[in-house]
Structures are given as C-alpha cells and as structure tokens.
Amino acid sequence: MSRFDVRRAAALKRLARCRPFVTASLCRVRRRCGNPRCRCSRDQPHQAYVLTYKVHAKTKTVHVPKDLLMEVRRWVQEYRQVKKLIREISYQSLAILRHHVPASRAVARSRKLSRS
Predict the structure, then answer these.
(1) What does the DSSP 8-state code read for residue 110?
(2) Residues 8/92, Cβ–Cβ less than 8 Å
(3) 3-state SS class at 2
(4) What is the DSSP string of 14-76?
(5) DSSP, res 81
(6) Is residue 116 part of a domain?
C-alpha cells in the first residue's frame, strides 16, 4: 500500500465521521420593515440571517431563525471541512494514478533486466 493509499484511507475515515452539513452560505442581512415609526427608518435596520444556495444555477434564500443560528453555523462550517476532505481525497487519488505508471514501468524494466 503506497503512502497515497494510506493518506486517502485516513481522509475517507475522517469523512465518514462528519456531522450534518449544509451546502449553503450563511449571510447577515439588514432590512427595513417599512413602518415609519420603527427604528429601522432611522438608520438602524433590522438584522436577520439567511442561507443562500444554488438550485439549477439560481440562487435561493431561506431565513434562519435566531434559535437555530448557532446550529446552522456549525452545519456551514462542517460543509467547509467536508469540501477540504473531498479535495484531499481527490488529490490523493490523482497522486495514486500519477505514480502508478512510473512504478509499473520500473517493475517491468527490472523483470526484463533479471531475465537477461
């Protein structure tokens, strides 16, 4: 087993231990409600959080309730970690492919030389 196989196997194990995640971005938005007596009409807009994500190349938005904000932040952070792991696994798989051909040629050359 090559060092790339070992690294890929370790990354796959870490990926299996991942917690729930969401493929979205958490954004803070500030809005005015439209009530002329509200504080938001005097340069203090209301603050809210939304998740934005893509569906068929269109951006969708969903409101995040205050009581779920911390949990949703963890989901978004977990997704970032999952993306890193996927990149690492992909890199290790490509490294296995890149190093396979030279290694197999070296084995073939050594067999050829040992027969001579």
Answers:
(1) H
(2) yes
(3) coil
(4) HHHT-----SSEEEEEEE--S-TTSGGGGT--EEEEEEEEEETTEEEEEEE-GGGHHHHHHHH
(5) H
(6) no
Instruction: Compute the chain's Rg from CA coordinates.
Output: 25
pLDDT per residue over 34-71, tens digit each?
888 888 888 889 999 999 999 999 999 999 999 999 99
- Are the beta carbons of 26 and 64 closer than 8 angstroms? yes
| Alpha carbon distance 26, 64 (integer Å) | 9
Among 101, 49, 40, 41, CA closest to 70: 49
User: What pLDDT is attached to residue 47?
Assistant: 92
User: What is the rounded distance in angstroms from the CA atom of residue 75 to the CA atom of residue 23?
Assistant: 8
CB 77 within 8 A of CB 64: no
Q: Considering its fold, how many domains does the chain have in total?
A: 1
Kindly state the greatest CA–CA separation across the chain: 96
Domain that holds residue 92: 3-111
